[in-house]
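quick one, two chains, predict together pls
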Amino acid sequence: MKALEIQNLKFFYMGREEPAIDIEHLSIEDGETVLITGRSGGGKSTLVNCITGIIPHVFHGEFEGEVNVYGKNTVKTPLSKLSTDVGIVLQNPETQVLNYTVEEEVAFGPENLCLESNDISERVRESVDITGTSHLMERETYTLSGGELQRIAIAAVLSMRPKLLILDEPTSNIDPEGTAKVFDIIRKLKEEKTLIVVEHKVERMLPFVDRIIVIDNGKILLDIKSSELSHYVEKMVEIGIEVPIHFIYAKQNGIDSEDMDTIRERLRQINMIPAPPKRAETSRVVMQAAVNVSTKAGKKLVDGEIELQEKQILAIMGRNGAGKSTFLKGLMGFLDIDLNCEIQVELDGRDISREHIIRRGKEIAFVPQNFDLTLISKSVELEIAYSLKKRKVKNFMERVDKLMDMFSLSDLRYRDPLSLSLGQRRRVAMASAMASGVKVIMLDEPTSGQDYFHKQVLGKELTRIKEAGYSIVIVTHDSRFVYRFADRVVVFNEGRKVLDGTPESVFMESRQYSILPPSDFILRSDEYELVNH
Amino acid sequence: MNWLIINAVSWILFFFGAAFPVLILLKAIGLTGFMKVTRYESYHTFYYRMNPAVKIILGIMVMVVASVTIWWIGAIMTIAILLSYLTLKDGKRKFITGMFLTIMTVIGTTWAFAPYTPYVILQEAFHSNHLTALWVWPSYFTVMGYQPSLTTQGIIYGFQISMRFTAVSLMSLVLVMTSTPSQVLRSLNKVGIPTSLTFSLVVAMRTVPRIFEYIDTSVKIQFMKGLGSNAPSILRPFYMLTGAFSGIVPVIVFLVRGAKDTAISADTRAFRAYSKRTYMHPMTIGKVDKMALSAVILIILMTVIVVMMGFGKGISYNG
């Protein structure tokens, strides 16, 4: 039986002349596991919204063609009736979780179906068992980590017992440990359900999927068996999709294998092992910071320190709850007044520990994960000029122009920052934070929720800023990004710094802290193989 | 010189009334303090075991009693409810926060009434034609609705009026802090309020604490970018307030972007599939509820007696 059948689908958002999705034919068999990938804005989410019936029931526009899920036409069938055939888990668990307690969240769907309380309990139990979250039942949802929350979001959809489950970038906002657990759930569900997973992490998804569909500009560019991926590597890279690095080198060097060890061995034989990314030379220390955070009850949350050098990108990594963001927020004076926080910060040899954030902000910029919250001005120009005006800097327009040039924002000078694209908004937030002449820039999870293409753009931006003389600290879960762009890595575990060194040295040992080394590193490192085999 | 001092002090007092309570609150509990008293936390004491519908009835009763009886009954209820905050999770902190909120409500309300209430109302309320002037406003303040002088009776009157609000404010927060939106939904549905209406309440209860959290981040970033950098530190709460206003637009935009996901999440889980919902744990009336309802009946009886004894509305309201 067909789980999904699409014929001549076109959907135009209101006021748009080009269709956001344009698919002549697509069908998915019952029990298949399909990966849908492609660049952000390419039409993946529009497609899954058409499959779930969100389009046209929730989002309106011009809809053409036919979408049938297990024989039900998604236009003619009410969304509530479709919900037992198809369920969707969204990218950001924080916005899709509605209830305060885990139990209430998982029970929400079955309660809407007007089931008996015994049936609801049974479904809740079954869903939390599958997702391994039964121990979280009594918890409030806002106390959960990103990974835990995403598993609860999956459990909440599973309790509807849908035959077709769609996971729309389920791991883009969570740490490697959480990601691994979500992949475990996918592995379990593969045997029971038809799965469509929208993901950028092609490499991680490969072991689970039968088929890969690439969507770009609203159209299906590729629809291949997963075993055929290595033949389409160049095309995927051209589109801007992250593919396993060893596939790329295998293709480039005519090696007919998908196995990492074999490819590395062959590359070594032909002396084609790629050189590791260039790291910044050791230079003078710009900032030394120690942060000690504890609860009023005396429980230690963070007790760590970092040292940042000039023109360096320092990455802070660790599993969720390891204390990375708390460290950064403590350093910047952003923590809740309920927490005790002692900090020791020396910037260029000067102790700024006791300074109020108004003064500290003159030398250290901070861009939070939700950087949209920082965009308060009516135009890009005013946003960047904000701190210069507030600090009464003379001839500030000169510096504003320079920053706009540096971040390629000159053409957007008079646009409202909140109306820009994600990448542009981030650039405005960074330029605005840097305007008052800071030396150090700190970014909390800048790679979270971004696709491969945008992460590359971000990495290049940070490298450019570094080369312009700034020192950068980033908190991230993305080991591939760190390997490519960071000069040094610090790993936190249970609030303490446990590893500190170059990405090469840290990735040798990072697995014990749930940080998986990227394939870029493994391909280049014989030593890693020796240690880890 | 005298003219200058009178004008300066009068304007300081004017702004004191408008901003002082909020500034003190921001200084004392911070924006995240508001988050703490608008968010549910699991616990086991009686408020948490009580049916939300009973809590709503209690809140309505407190409001009615405070409205129809003399001010000190409102004051007693305020103290009683505030003391009951100690039974909540992290009770001491919530008690302190509640106390600050109450004090600021008292100051804010007193100041909202004291300079404006017409003398004739005060004379009627205090059964005396003699009013004690504490401060004489510049004559042009009457344009803003001020009486010529600030009087002791005006301040007492404002204070007494504030006792109408404090108890019910505290009781409303008890509902928010001790009931999950889902429990409220269950209770309200049981009395026939449509799901689509109560769902708005659920989303609001989930969103309000986030608003404070996000505004807090926005304000701190503005400070980092130099907000108030040239002003003395004593004025920082003022800047915190202006920063909070500036942060409202990005916070709303941010929340609206997330609201799309919330709508999808609810609609794809059969929300509003039927006019009613069933529940995993249907709301029941337990021992605690029966005790609370008995207390409500007792309060009603006592109110009737108190009013009959002449302790009804002690002062007029039309100020």
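Chain B has two domains: 8-13+44-178, 180-278.
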